[in-house]
Amino acid sequence: MNYKNNYIMPSCFSFFMAMISSCVFFPGFMSFDSFYQYGQALGLEPLTDVHPPIMSYIWRALCVVTKSPGTLLFFDQIIYWLAILLFACAVSRRSWRRVIMIGCLGFWPPLYITSLHLWADAGMMAFLALTVACLAVQITDERKRWLVMAGVALFVAASLRHNAITGVIPLMCYIAWRFARNFPAPVPACMKILASLFLVLVLGQKALSIGVEHVPQLGTVLVWDLTAISVAENKDVIPDYVPKTPGPDFVGRLRSHWDANTRVPSAAESSPDLTPAEVRQQWTPVQEKRLIKDWLKAIIHDPGAYAAHRMHVAKTLLGLTHEVYLPYFYIGIDTPNAYGIDFKFHKLVYKIMHSVFDKEKKWIIYKVWIYALIELYLLSFYLYRSLVLHKTGYFGALPAITVLSGIMIELPLFILAPAAHFRYSVWLVFSTLLALILTVSERYMRKTSDAA
């Protein structure tokens, strides 16, 4: 078989899977967050930075083709399967092996189900995977265009979620090094390129925020922490300037709405972000700065209650509790609604999805702690091989960089996550699989390269 023909079957298979997935699960799963962003895309809601605006911009452009929320599902599925296609082509030579890898990786349940949601998390996951895929291809095909494509994908990923930046940093450093490694003075060149990339990222984010209303958001996490302390200690530690519902037994009402996995239920009694409109009316940057001080005071005064709360969040994110907190599978947005859309699935599709999805979230592959352990092992393996054995694999530092990206995007969540949703950890899951495949396939790739 001609070498170029090895791309035909995997490409057709990937495109077919993207189209089938989009059609079967059309218009995709939607939560209130994505529902509100769709309103922004339609121009029916003001643009704010509660959620990064790039998703609404992309959605708005897609709605030019056809006015349907499902356009974003097609877009995300194309990026998702394209990333997996490029990655499979980078780590395998034979067509049939590529198809098998595309199928196994693409339909890995935690990844696939997340990709069917109209969430920024799904887009971020797909574009980060596309970044790694382009970098893997560039190991063999050293043309700089792959680095440029990786940089563009990384910029989009960084723009889709506020917490994406920590996972972007290792990959950005690697892109800078790949650009600079053949320079006469590679280290200074790498530093200059890295500074330029950061400048482009910052200026790009500023450009995306033009005309977008800034809404202080850290307070939502801080109030959730203060609510946890209030419930645990049976006393109100939430400052009076935070909006609260009137009435007696405030702490009792907090407890009745309390959910240790998400801040949303307790927001019914006390929260600066009951709706985006209330944020604009009731929450100011000055109050947020003041709240940080009061938050620190509460933690110092009741460290045990805070530690127990955040420990529960970390354990739930890692899958160490009795059940994975996976609040996906939205049966549809209420109709009629302000945007005039019908978001109900076909009854047969819904019945199948409900049965399968509800059972599979109990599988061990949803335990994030397993992926975290694998990532720590892969990172240790790379450090031992490079520092002690002075060897590098076929893909060099890319597996370790991919692992670092997954770890660095996960760690801040233990303190800053506004909920313990599994979807927040999906890049750690994806990065583990990518890094593991890169590491395992290195011997095969080196052998086939030597044979060629």
From TrEMBL:
Record flagged with keyword Disulfide bond: no
Transmembrane segments: 12-32, 72-92, 99-116, 122-139, 146-177, 183-204, 363-384, 396-417, 424-441
PROSITE patterns: PROKAR_LIPOPROTEIN
Keywords per UniProt: Membrane, Transmembrane, Transmembrane helix
Keyword Transmembrane helix: yes
Protein name in UniProt: Glycosyltransferase RgtA/B/C/D-like domain-containing protein
